[in-house]
Amino acid sequence: MTRETYINAALSLLLVLVPFWAWSTGQAYILTLCTKVAILALAGVGLNIALGLGGLVSFGHAAFFGIGGYAMGILASHAQTFDPIMDWPILIEGTKSMPMIWLVAMLASALAALLIGALSLRTSGVYFIMITLAFAQMLYYFTIGWPAYGGEDGLSIYVRNSFPGLNTLVPVQFLILSYVILGLALLFSARLARAPFGLALSAARQNADRVETVGIAPYRLRLVAFVISGAITGLAGALFADLNRFISPTMFSWHTSGEIMIFVILGGVGRLYGPVAGAALFILLEHLLGGVSDYWKIFLGALLLAVVLFARGGLIGTLAGREVAHG
Amino acid sequence: MTFLLFAEQMLNGLQFGIMLFLMAAGLTLVFGVMGLINLAHGSLYMIGAFAAAAVAGATGSFTLALIASLAAAAAAGALIELTVIRRLYKRDHLDQVLATFALILILSEGTRWVFGSFPLYLDVPSYLSGPVMLPGGIQYPLYRLYIIGAGLLLAVGLFALIARTRIGIQIRAGEADREMIAALGVDISRLYTLVFALGAALAGLAGALVGAIQSVQVGMGEPVLILAFVVIVIGGIGSIKGALVGALLVGMTDTMGGVLLPRVFALFMDPSAATTVGASLGSMLIYILMAVVLIMRPSGLYGST
Fold it and tell me: What are the extents of the domains in chain B?
């Protein structure tokens, strides 16, 4: 067991104990906050595959987060009004079933990631950062100007979508659902990093020329990583929309991309639990400082600056030392 | 569409492009010379606008307001370069993006703390307000012409500075080979501070000039920042010429797209739908332009690979 494993275990324990305490004392608000942490961490887990493992600095993951959110919004709003999405050439109806919505959200964001990735991965460095940003901005302006689903004002979904056997409107049940999904994503991410694919991807980040020399095309590795990454972030978007029962173009804004990146960096780039630690810290700060001052983002900014300048490796990197889990 | 409206929109596009150039010039210089992505450039634009609005409110002089915007943005730029930015030159782009994103949070919330959440207004002085008649019977606001003129003058000045002066030679040498000019005895860290402050001053002035047309508020720099990035990416990062071409291209595309597309769609759609679809496609257009340019030329129009 390395130090990082202990830290991860402690963090998992904390993330279970806090909601348990909140549930036993009946504080629904804390439960919602923990759910939010899990969902935002999931978005970070998605980005971490591209960013930490693949070294792809995507400044446009809000695109996938938003697509996931809008997949939920579109399906649920049509189910709400019993108005089919399209009736020609085939009948497609809306749905309130979470598994179906998740599937659509992941497929749609994976497809978007395939298109965006295929074009963006032709560039590198700053150009990659900026072209991913540009694609997210395109979708942002598209949703603002698209009146069918609320345009700039966004769209409310009145009842949370359903999951077989659960009452998702009970905070603790939705929390458990989000935790399970986050757990599965972390498991997947850990396996991926150790699989031949993950090792090759890591190698391509460290030295693309050598990887090419042994006969593996970095472009394809990166594209697959980008697609997986986008699909996970898209799933997080669908869950986030369900948490708030609201979607709006803000999900696509570049602040969202920045915040998902912040989760990953605050926690530690390329660390398995980095996004979890980062999202938890972010929400904790928002909750604690937001109560103290309206200008809490000054402190967030200062902390972020301090992490970038002095605590490279983020929270987990600082606690666990310089060894890197993802190789 | 009439010729008059078309000509007026062309001038609007030109004015917008010139403003974008003032923003993009600083960004591209800082990237070219120091290799730094500065997301906080939009905050310097905002600081310039706030300084101008505050000084104009206190003294009533527009000229003093513009001088204040230059001074405040240059001072703020030099300060953040000395305290934060210079630690980032050797870092990778990810660290730079995050640290300057953090600076945006600090500067935006700090400005909100000092000036409050309500927008300020900066009035166009009386001697620059009102329309003028241009050849061809075009009526156009004098102030916008003033912006175009001032911007063009600054662009010429900047090109002269880069091409003809000793500082300009050092800046160009810094882009080509930093170790070499340091070895030749140029104080490289002073040069970096100077370049950063120069870019900041241009952004601050752009903020003040635009602040007189729009309202001065927290967050005003962000849409412009993103557009300025689109500009330098299209033009090729580090190239001043690319920034000028990119700025005019983006300014024109954005303005003309917003005006022309709804009319094009109106040819085959009902008018209200054409307006919404056209307008949203219009604001997507520059990002589409950027994506197309990058796909054809992965390092921009004038970028070196």
Answer: 13-219
In chain B, residues with a C-beta closer than 8 Å to the C-beta of A314 are: none
Contact B237 A304 (CB under 8 A): no
**Is B301 in the A-facing interface, judged by CB distances under 8 Å?**
no
DSSP string, B29-72: HHHHHH----TTHHHHHHHHHHHHHHHHHHH--HHHHHHHHHHH
Cα distance between residue B291 and residue B281, in whole Å: 14
Residue A325: predicted pLDDT: 44
pLDDT digits (tens, 9 = 90+) for A119-140: 899 888 888 998 899 899 989 9
Question: A126-130, B41-45, B244-248, B271-275: which range is least confident on average?
Answer: B271-275
Distance of CA B243 to the CA centre of its chain: 10
CB B239 within 8 A of CB B172: no
Tell if the CB–CB gap between B98 and A298 is shorter than 8 Å: no
Q: Are A253 and A76 in contact (CB under 8 A)?
A: no
Q: Is this prediction's ipTM beyond 0.85?
A: no
Q: Where are the alpha helices (DSSP H) in B88-176?
A: 93-115, 142-164, 166-176
Percent of chain A with pLDDT over 90: 54
Nearest to A41 by CA among A255, A204, A262, A217: A262
Residue with tokens 């002089």: B61
CA dihedral A215, A221, A224, A226 (to 10 degrees): -160
Higher pLDDT, A39 or A160: A39
The runs of H, that is alpha helices, within B165-270 are: 166-176, 178-183, 188-211, 221-235, 240-266
Token digits for B31? Answer: 């990237």
Which of these, A242, A277, A76, lies nearest to A171 by C-alpha position?
Answer: A242
Report residue A188's pLDDT band, with 50, 70 and 90 as the boundaries: very high
Whether the pLDDT of residue B55 is over 90: the answer is yes
Confidence of residue A1 (pLDDT cuts 50, 70, 90): low
Looking at residue B305, its pLDDT comes to 54
CB atoms within 10 A of CB A59: 27
Q: Provide the terminal-to-terminal Cα distance of chain B, rounded to the nearest Å.
A: 42
Q: What is the pLDDT of residue A139?
A: 92
Contact B28, B98 (CB under 8 A): no
Q: Give A81-129 as a DSSP string.
A: HT--SB-SSS-B----BHHHHHHHHHHHHHHHHHHHHHHHTTS-THHHH
Report the distance separating Cα A78 and Cα A94, nearest Å.
5
Q: 10 Å Cβ neighbour count for B123? A: 14
CA nearest A269 in B: which residue? Answer: B94
Q: Flag if A304 and B283 touch (Cβ within 8 Å).
A: no
